[in-house]
């Protein structure tokens, strides 16, 4: 399994200048490739191949006065920028053909020097290396100081240097993990859990535990508001405005980093404790267009479920996503009777069939676990089987019969 490991870089002043040149050259080559494609489309000609673009935009361009400064950076960086443009067009055409999963993507756009995120990639051909002193040696940039927060499990084949909106530099390595080591990293467990994600509590588990929502963005709103007000008062194009912009960006990345760390810790804990996990497939993009949009984005459910997914795959666990239209909040987890929709302010309710008093979120988490097929009895039979066609005499029933476990 491939994972990405990111480490903070601390380049000195000359190295930051060299990185800025590399970012700029990679951006120019990318834009030249997009422009060449667009010119060919406008003229009705065939798209130039990758080899033709490499020869024209890199090899020949270095010999001209207008693009001679492309020779100041590693050629591998420029070649990888061309590959990024090719990948962007492949994704666009696959999206048009309907063969690409996920939301549709548009055609590649020109990059700007004002983009909040800039990156360059070095492959093994660039001869980058890790020095004995723990620094990252990059061609035509130098040995950059790295803060190693953990050891690399294997030797990476490439490294991507990223500069984010807050002016921080990172080295991102793609690592192939050891399947045997991953299989033994987590001890076997016979536990299963259902998770109901929400806003009042970030997650409610089928065993009754409730994880409070940290609300990182809400807690930082006062500081963000002050920083953004200061930014709006600065003159455009001034150095003070750039300082204010960095202050706003740093406040935002602090919130994002805290949320990211919370998701990592909670997802790892759940994967370690349980062999199987059930969760709802929420329509986050739809919920993000409602009046609860800020709270939905602050929770970050998609990021959390994504972490559960790849960690379950890595450590041999099972993650089951149930349909978003499953009536988990309307069904009694004790008898299976569906009591109908309930307003959000109703946090507890009593089943009209069996009289069980339910906590709304805990009951939903139990139903998620049962709908995912993770609830088993001591003899291994499901407590609540899936829906089956009703007999003629049972037409109109709102629940599913419970099947006793054979001794």
Question: Secondary-structure element sequence?
Answer: EHHHEEEEEEHEEEHHEHHHEEEH
Distance between the termini: 43 Å
- Rounded to the nearest angstrom, the radius of gyration is 27 Å
Amount of helix: 25-40%
Q: Major beta sheet, specifics? A: 7 strands, antiparallel
Quote the average pLDDT.
Answer: 88
Structural class computed from helices and strand pairing: alpha+beta
In spatial order, strands of the major sheet run: 2-6-7-1-5-4-3
Shape: elongated
Strand content: 15-25%
Q: Count every helix, treating DSSP H or I runs of 4 or more residues as helices.
A: 10
Count of individual beta strands:
14
Can you put this structure into words, describing what you see?
The protein has 407 residues and is an alpha+beta fold. The protein is 40% helix and 17% strand. The protein has 10 helices and 14 strands. It has helices at 13-43, 50-59, 75-97, 179-185, 216-233, 239-273, 284-287, 293-299, 301-315, 360-371; strands at 2-10, 118-122, 129-130, 136-138, 142-147, 159-163, 169-176, 192-197, 201-205, 210-212, 276-280, 318-322, 348-350, 357-359. The strands form 3 sheets. The protein has a 7-stranded antiparallel β-sheet. Strands 10-9-8-11-12 form a 5-stranded mixed β-sheet, sandwiched between helices. A two-stranded antiparallel sheet has the order 13-14. A hairpin with a 3-residue loop joins strand 8 (192-197) and strand 9 (201-205). The longest helix is centred in the middle third of the chain and has 35 residues, at 239-273. The relative contact order is 0.10. Residues 376-407 have low confidence and may be disordered.
């Amino acid at each position: 399994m491939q994972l990405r490991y990111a480490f903070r870089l601390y380049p000195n002043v000359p190295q930051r200048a060299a990185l800025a040149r590399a970012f700029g050259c990679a951006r120019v080559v990318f834009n030249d490739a997009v422009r060449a494609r667009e010119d060919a489309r406008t003229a009705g000609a065939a798209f130039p191949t990758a080899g033709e673009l490499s020869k024209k935009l890199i090899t020949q361009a270095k010999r001209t006065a207008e693009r001679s400064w492309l020779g100041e950076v590693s050629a591998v960086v420029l070649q990888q920028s061309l590959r990024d443009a090719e990948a962007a067009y492949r994704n666009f055409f696959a999206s048009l053909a309907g063969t690409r999963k996920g939301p549709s993507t548009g055609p590649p756009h020109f990059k700007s020097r004002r983009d909040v995120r800039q990156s360059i990639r070095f492959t093994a051909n660039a001869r980058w290396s890790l020095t004995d002193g723990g620094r990252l040696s990059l061609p035509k940039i130098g040995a950059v100081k790295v803060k190693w927060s953990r050891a690399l499990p294997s030797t990476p084949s490439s490294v991507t240097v990223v500069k984010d909106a807050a002016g921080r530099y990172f080295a991102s390595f793609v690592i192939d993990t050891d399947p045997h080591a991953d299989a033994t990293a987590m001890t076997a467990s016979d536990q299963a859990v259902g998770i109901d994600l929400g806003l009042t509590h970030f997650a409610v588990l089928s065993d009754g535990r409730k994880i409070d929502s940290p609300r990182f963005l809400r807690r930082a709103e006062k500081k963000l508001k002050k920083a953004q007000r200061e930014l709006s008062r600065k003159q455009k194009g001034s150095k003070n405005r750039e300082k204010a912009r960095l202050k706003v960006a740093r406040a935002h990345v602090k919130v994002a980093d805290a949320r990211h760390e919370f998701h990592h810790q909670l997802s790892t804990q759940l994967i370690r404790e349980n062999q199987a996990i059930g969760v709802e497939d929420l329509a986050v993009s739809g919920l993000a267009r409602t009046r609860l949009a800020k709270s939905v984005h602050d929770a970050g459910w998609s990021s959390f479920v994504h972490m559960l997914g790849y960690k379950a795959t890595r450590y041999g666990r099972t993650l089951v996503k149930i349909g978003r239209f499953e009536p988990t909040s309307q069904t009694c987890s004790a008898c299976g009777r569906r009591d109908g929709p309930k307003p959000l302010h109703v946090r507890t309710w009593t089943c009209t069939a069996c009289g069980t008093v339910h906590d709304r979120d805990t009951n939903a988490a139990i139903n998620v676990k049962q709908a995912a097929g993770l609830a088993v009895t001591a003899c291994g039979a499901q407590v609540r089987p899936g829906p089956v066609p009703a007999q003629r005499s049972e037409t109109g029933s709102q629940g599913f019969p419970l099947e006793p476990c054979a001794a």
